[in-house]
Amino acid sequence: MSDLAPPSGSGPEALARAVLRGEDGALAAWFGAEHRATWKLCFGLLADGAEADDAAQDAMLHLHDHLARWDQGRPYRAWRNTVVLNLCRDRMRRAKTRRRAEEHAAGAGSAMHLADPVEEAAQSEAREVLRASLAALSPREREAFVLRDLEGLPTQETAAALGVTESTVRALLTLARRRLRRIIGERVPGLVPGSARPDGGLP
Fold this sequence. Notes:
By secondary structure, the chain is mainly α.
């Protein structure tokens, strides 16, 4: 195989197998395919963009270093999600105090900045609504919501990743969806049906 030959397959699982076989170009292709998905998962679990940046880099290195431990009889995505979930849990335990201090400092310093253009401000507000909404969930609710609703894992795989029963996953999802609906409705009146009355008051 020449240096320019593409690795066999194009999905993350096929690319992971190609990396394990040592195919030319497989590592770069796998990293490119997985980094964005891993970042989205980290952001959903950590509810913090800066933390997600660092966590995704750490997760990609960890996934690569431990790729040989992946049981190829098990779906690759389930293995990857479990690894990232555990790394994010460890990160939250270690960095809870530091993250709160950084968020406080960022909030205190924001008043010193000049106003952004309208479009950038709108995007920033949308990111903040998402971050604050996810942060308001309990860790278990957030994990269930991210894996089941954002990642699209079946309930059975979500339960296996979290180490709980399927009925517990369904209960966590019900709580998470209700809480998110209420929080988003309060922060963006009118986006969620019934979240606000025409006179501006809450129902």
